[in-house]
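User: Reviewer 2 asked us to show a designed sequence for the structure in our supplementary figure. I'm pasting the structure tokens here. Could you produce the per-position amino acids so we can include them in the response letter?
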């Protein structure tokens, strides 16, 4: 098994854009990650609006839900708190 690490939102977005047509498994996760990377590469993290942060949260939940069962999954409430989106 091989691991590849990509640093940076822009680089991640660009590589995923090239790979998406060839991905057969985990396509939903790849699309969600691509959308998140696209948003994050165009806006600095500290300047995200509440709406953009909520979209990132939704992408995180899609990616997490498609992973194999694990005890370490975060709830939507926990993720909201981490992203400072609590009402």
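Assistant: Here is a per-position design you can include in the supplement:
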């Amino acid at each position: 098994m091989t691991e590849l690490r990509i640093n940076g939102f822009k680089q991640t977005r660009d590589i995923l854009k090239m790979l998406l047509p060839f991905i057969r498994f985990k396509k939903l996760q790849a699309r969600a990650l691509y959308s998140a990377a696209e948003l994050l590469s165009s806006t600095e993290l500290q300047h995200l609006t509440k709406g953009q942060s909520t979209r990132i949260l939704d992408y995180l939940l899609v990616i997490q839900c498609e992973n194999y069962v694990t005890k370490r999954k975060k709830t939507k409430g926990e993720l909201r708190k981490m992203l400072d989106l609590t009402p």
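For the response letter, you might also mention the following. The chain is about 55% helix and 0% strand. The chain has one domain: 9-82.
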